[in-house]
Structure formats: structure tokens, C-alpha cells
Design a protein that fits this description.
By secondary structure, this protein is an alpha/beta fold. The chain is built from 14 helices and 14 strands. It has a six-stranded mixed β-sheet, with helices on one face. A six-stranded parallel β-sheet has the order 6-5-9-10-4-11, with helices on both faces. Helix 3 links the parallel strand 5 and strand 6. About 35% of the residues are buried.
């Protein structure tokens, strides 16, 4: 039994796993990066993106990522600079190979908003007559240590129930770090956080406001600080937006020699998992002359735990003064899976048009069948999927291509390394354009 995995390598490499399974790595087929033909709704969105700002919603497998890549390809082909933003590195890594193939001359065509913000701040500090030192993102253990020192040294007005022993607990610092991060993502400074605490009856916010004030104080937090600038990850987008806004008027005065690193077109995929500070960053890019193209679906938002705002598309549409478009039909999904997604989404609170929830599958889409398994962990879910594939292979001796769909699934299934089995079809699949993937999902092959 052999497992063949698609990989960007030349030739074929074979090796054995545990002396029982032989694994071969081979290059992707020719033209793997080519995009499918767009339908009428997708084409209308892409055409509108050539001359103005666009925000589009679409159900899972309606081609949001595909449209983002088409807009990127057309912008690069027209000689303009373009950048795709994805909420996290996992999704950026999925989009990067195809985006790089579509725009081979573009350096890092896909970034996270924080990565792009880092680039802006680093360019401001280093590309000048007398360069300043670099930028360091403060995360994890370093931030925990800084908070521990501030909790011990700052006389903050904590309520009586939050005593000294509680403030010394690692769990309390973790909660405080999360609060500070969420306030930073929302653009709230120390004064705003303290004011909100007094207004809404949360005295712990007032105490946290004193900690945030200590974090913000001092020249070491200024973008002109000559030594290494240490910036909290939740605040770097707001800082980048501030620098973009002042670039034209202050860059020459500060000795900055590089132009503002804002591309002509900024494309955002999965906007529903971005944070409010991303909205601030996109607004600054728009004011600097960039076109903003964004795709979202609040029904599949999974990043609320880290500040993601599912309905950010409505706020962005209001800021840009545009209407939200719809992508329409769903592809590469069976009728059974689509109906399951529709039923799950019907239980989610909705803001704005629910048109995407009524999107239909293609006329030739298979009926499909649903088999339910309860997996306590992602590893168990993967084992159950593998067992189902082996069982089907032994019964039919067929070769399968597994298509991974972004349908309405539990949040844990969207974490790195976890996949959701939506449908399986014999390799290489039925002929015809409707069987082509409409979004750049990974494909794995199981053969004998």
C-alpha cells in the first residue's frame, strides 16, 4: 500500500514509514495553479475590482479565494502592485504557492495583516539616511514577564477581590494579557479602557487601564526610538496605520528615503476572521490611494477568541461607501453536505443579507451521503477519516481524491493540521468544468 502526496518537488522521491507504508513525493501536475472559469456573479465582482473598492460575501466553496487570486493575477498582469492579506499564517501558506505562480515577480504576495504592518514599521525605521534599529514583536513569554513586572511595580486601582496573591498567578496574567490584546485590537488606549470600566461597571478594567498606561509610557514606544522598537502584536497594525497616514508629510522630514510600501491593490481573503485594527489599517491604505477588495462569510468565522469580528465586512463597506456583493453558486460540494451547512448556518445570528445561505450547488452535483463520527480530538478525527478511506479502498479497489471543503464545521476543525472531509470521488473525477475546485484547497491521493 502506498500514499502519494502532492508536493512541489522535482521527480519522485520514495521512502518507507514504519517499514510498512511506502511514501512517494512527486511534483504537482502541469497547470495545477491555473484558476477555473468564473461564473457570472464571480466575473461581475472581478470586473468591479478593476476600478474600485469591492466587498463580496460568499458561502463555503463559492469561490471567495479563487476570486481573490483572479483579482491578484489581473492586477499584477496590468503592471500594478498587489498584495493578498489572510488572517493567519496557516491560510497565508495555503494561498502563497498559487499566488506566487500567478505573480512570479512579486515578493511575498500573501501576508497576514500583522506581517504587512511589520513591513510598514520596519521600512519607516530602517530605510532612511540614519537607520534606526529594527522592530521586535513582543509575544508570549516576553509579554508575560513584562506584565509580571508591571503588576508588581504599578500601583493600579484593582478591586478588593483581586488581591496580591491572585495577581501573582500565571492564570491571571494570561487573562490580563488577553484583555490588553483585545483592547489593542479595538484601538483602545489606557484612558479609553479605564473610561469603559467606569462606565460599564468593570473596576478590573480600570486597574488594567493603569497597566496599559505603563506599557504605553516612555520614549521606547515611539516609532522614532533609536534602539530596537518592541511592539505588541495587537498594536502593530494601528501603529502602521498611523505611519501610513503621516508618510507623505513627515517622511522627508524624518529622513525616510523609501516610498510608502502600500500596494496599489490590497486584497483581503476571509475578512470575517480579521480584527478591528485590520479595519484601521485598510482605511489608512485606502487613504493612501490603494483599492480595497475583500471577501468574507461571517457564518464560518472562527477567530472570535482572538479578537476577530465576524461582521467586519459591514463596517468596512460603510467606511468605503460600497454595497456588499454576493458570489452565488456553490461548487465542489455534494447536495447532502450543502444542506447540512445550510441547516447549521440557519442557527447563526445574521447581520445583513442572508443571500449566500440560499446558494445552490451545481446541477450535476452528486447527492452524497453523510456519515457521522464523534472524535474527541483532531487526531481521532483524522484517524476516523483514514479508516473510512482504507475501508472504501479495500471494498472497491478504487483510487480516491479527497476534496477538503470549508463548510460550516466546529471551530477546532479549522485549526492548523485539522481537515474536514466533505466529499470523495474516484480519481481523476468526472470530466467537465464543474468538477474543478473553485477555491485553492489541498488535494491528497490514496493509491495502491
Amino acid at each position: 500500500m502506498a500514499i502519494i502526496c502532492a508536493a512541489d518537488v522535482g521527480g519522485v522521491c520514495e521512502y518507507c514509514v514504519m517499514s510498512e507504508i511506502k511514501v512517494r513525493l512527486r511534483r504537482r501536475p502541469e497547470g495545477w495553479w491555473r484558476l477555473p472559469e468564473l461564473n457570472a456573479e464571480q466575473h461581475a465582482v472581478v470586473v468591479a475590482a478593476r476600478s474600485g473598492d469591492v466587498i463580496a460575501r460568499g458561502a463555503p466553496s463559492s469561490g471567495r479565494s479563487t476570486c481573490a487570486l483572479v483579482v491578484f493575477e489581473q492586477a499584477v498582469s496590468a503592471g500594478t502592485s498587489a498584495l493578498i492579506l489572510a488572517p493567519d499564517r496557516t491560510r497565508a501558506d495555503v494561498l502563497t504557492p498559487r499566488a506566487q505562480a500567478l505573480g512570479p515577480a512579486v515578493v511575498r504576495p500573501v501576508r497576514t495583516p500583522a506581517s504587512f504592518a511589520y513591513q510598514v514599521v520596519a521600512t519607516w525605521r530602517t530605510q532612511r539616511e540614519v537607520p534606526l534599529e529594527g522592530v521586535e514583536l513582543v509575544t508570549g513569554a516576553a509579554q508575560d514577564q513584562a506584565l509580571a513586572e508591571l503588576l508588581a511595580g504599578v500601583d493600579a486601582p484593582w478591586p478588593e477581590e483581586i488581591g496580591e496573591q491572585m495577581r501573582a498567578m500565571p492564570a491571571f496574567r494570561a487573562e490580563l494579557r488577553n484583555l490588553v490584546a483585545r483592547a489593542g485590537e479595538a484601538g483602545m488606549g489606557a484612558a479609553s479602557l479605564s473610561e469603559a470600566g467606569a462606565r460599564f461597571g468593570h473596576p478590573e478594567w480600570v486597574g488594567a487601564g493603569a497597566i496599559v498606561a505603563a506599557l504605553e509610557e516612555g520614549p521606547e514606544h515611539s516609532p522614532e526610538y533609536p534602539q530596537t522598537l518592541r511592539v505588541d502584536l495587537s498594536r502593530i497594525q494601528s501603529l502602521a496605520a498611523e505611519l501610513i497616514g503621516t508618510w507623505q508629510g513627515c517622511a522627508e522630514e524624518r529622513g525616510v528615503q523609501a516610498p510608502c510600501p502600500v500596494p496599489d491593490v490590497v486584497i483581503v481573503d476571509d475578512l470575517q476572521d480579521c480584527t478591528p485594527s485590520t479595519l484601521t489599517l485598510l482605511g489608512a491604505c485606502r487613504d493612501a490611494g490603494a483599492r480595497i477588495i475583500a471577501f468574507s462569510d461571517s457564518d464560518v468565522a472562527v477567530a472570535g477568541y482572538r479578537g476577530g469580528e465576524p461582521h467586519l465586512d459591514r463596517r468596512l463597506a460603510s467606511a468605503l461607501g460600497v454595497q456588499i456583493a454576493e458570489l452565488g453558486q456553490v461548487y465542489d460540494t455534494s447536495r447532502a453536505v450543502r444542506e447540512l451547512a445550510r441547516q447549521a448556518c440557519a442557527r447563526i445570528a445574521q447581520s445583513g443579507s442572508p443571500a449566500r445561505r440560499g446558494a445552490q450547488v451545481a446541477d450535476d452535483a452528486p447527492e452524497g451521503a453523510l456519515v457521522t463520527h464523534l472524535g474527541a480530538t483532531p487526531s481521532q478525527m483524522g484517524a476516523l477519516i483514514a479508516r473510512a478511506l482504507r475501508s472504501r479502498h479495500c471494498m472497491t479497489a478504487s483510487i480516491f481524491r479527497i476534496r477538503l471543503s470549508s463548510c460550516a464545521v466546529p471551530p477546532w476543525s479549522r485549526k492548523p493540521g485539522v481537515t474536514w472531509l466533505a466529499a470523495a470521488s474516484p480519481w481523476p473525477g468526472a470530466a467537465g468544468p464543474s468538477t474543478l475546485p473553485r477555491s485553492p484547497r489541498p488535494a491528497f491521493s490514496w493509491t495502491s
